[in-house]
Write a structure and sequence with these properties.
Blueprint lengths: L30 E6 L20 H10 L4 E4 L1 H20 L8 E2 L4 H10 L13 H16 L7 E7 L3 H5 L16 E4 H10 L21 H4 L6 H15 L17 E8 L2 E9 L1 H12 L7 E5 L20 H13 L10 H11 L5 H7 L18
Parallel strand pairs: 1-2, 1-4, 3-8, 4-5, 7-8
Antiparallel strand pairs: 6-7
This protein binds iron/sulfur cluster.
């Protein structure tokens, strides 16, 4: 199990470095910061049989505050930041088509990145250079936010709660230390570990207070919430690409054709007079089929979203498991519900993201944005699979 090529399967339990045996945060007197991914909000409450209405993102923030974290952030902030960077990168590639290998692949799923690097290394340049939301949030916390609270990055202990097991390996990559003082994200807990820990603390979930996520760096739009499901990253990117190219917002539901649980979806979109062909695949079997079809010249796309887990992160390897029951579609519907009820549905309208550009990053794809928010996928090699002993 520990030899899974995309690091999506593992028997690891990372609660120990975060919590001590008496249940207190094990932080060696550091400032503790936690971020929580979009897909976690739709699954954490399943173990407690809480209703969708009661198990609000604000109640999740309340639970994390009760656990003792000093700052509680929503990774949707960084998902919006990802759209600003990845969307701008896509439009830039479209402008200079002949300089790039096509299609451009999304890069927020570490399981997919490991798959592409190991199976189709000649296509690694197709990957967007944007880091995943987890890693963008980590880099912003240890740079921009550290400056704001006048704290040294090495005195910040940064935890993330993710639906994913591959993210545990992602945060340890040599390219994910933007300050030179240690990983931008120190420890990743998956949803199951988080729920286990809540249970072990005997937290009264029915009495949980609602709390706000911390600001800045804690607020996200509806576009960011749907990152947690297959097609969500593509839809959020198209909403903002359309705006960045035309100066006008589209109908937020205009790109609904990329929604749904089908393993391979495609659409053709008109952006400022250019026909943009997009595809969305989830599950690595579907990713392989799509790549083989591209290589045989049977299909052509400009922009492709790939998620390693069937259904996207809502069905991630670190989410609660219910014997014989597939929850990805139900969780996905919850995310679209939250998107449709969000007062902001475009990443480029996130006021905290706009403020971060104004105060720190300047603009998408700036030097500072490249330093903190982008990565070089060639900078590390896939670990070789251990040789099996002959019997
Ligand atoms: Fe992780 Fe699966 Fe989401 Fe990829 S799709 S980021 S492997 S949970």
């Amino acid at each position: 199990i520990t030899h899974c090529p995309v690091a999506a399967l593992s028997g690891r339990d990372d609660k120990r470095p975060v919590f001590s045996q008496n249940g207190m945060l094990n932080t060696r007197r550091k400032t503790t910061v936690v971020q929580v991914a979009p897909a976690v909000r739709t699954a954490w409450a399943e173990a407690f049989r809480l209703s969708r209405k009661f198990a609000s993102p604000e109640r999740l923030a309340g639970a994390l505050r009760l656990m003792g974290f000093d700052y509680v952030f929503d990774t949707t902030y960084a998902a919006d930041l990802t759209i600003m960077e990845e969307g701008s990168e896509f439009l830039e590639r479209l402008k200079h088509k002949e300089d790039y290998q096509w299609p451009m692949f999304t890069s927020c799923c570490p399981g997919w990145i490991r798959f592409l690097k190991s199976q189709y290394p000649d296509m690694v340049d197709c990957l967007s250079t944007a880091k995943s939301p987890q890693q963008m949030q980590g880099a912003i916390i240890k740079n921009y936010f550290a400056d704001k609270i006048h704290e040294d990055p090495e005195n910040i202990f940064s935890v993330s709660i993710m639906p994913c097991i591959a993210k545990k390996a992602e945060c340890a990559l040599p390219t994910m230390d933007s300050t030179g003082t240690g990983p931008d994200v120190d420890v990743v807990l998956n949803t199951r570990e988080f729920v286990d820990y809540m249970k072990s603390l005997n937290i009264d979930v029915y009495g949980l207070p609602e709390d706000r996520f911390d600001s800045p760096c804690g607020e996200g739009t509806g576009a960011a919430v749907i990152f947690g499901t297959t097609g969500g990253v593509m839809e959020a990117a198209l909403r903002s690409c359309y705006y960045l190219a035309t100066g006008e917002n589209p109908d937020p539901d205009a790109f609904h054709s990329v929604r749904g649980m089908d393993g391979w979806k495609e659409a053709s979109i008109d952006i400022a007079g250019t026909e943009v062909k997009v595809a969305v695949v989830s599950g690595l079997g579907n990713a392989r089929k799509l790549i083989e079809a591209i290589r045989r010249g049977e299909v052509f796309y400009h922009f492709v979203e790939v998620m390693a887990c069937p259904g996207g992160c809502v069905g991630g390897g670190g989410q609660p498991i219910h014997e014989g029951k597939e929850m990805a579609e139900i969780r996905s519907k919850n995310l679209y519900f939250l998107d449709s009820h969000n007062e902001r549905r475009f990443s480029h309208e996130n006021p905290e993201v706009l403020k971060t550009y104004e105060e720190y990053l300047e603009k998408p794809l700036s030097r500072m944005s490249h330093k903190l928010l982008h990565t070089d996928h060639h900078a590390w090699d896939m670990p070789l699979a251990p040789k099996l002993k002959k019997r």
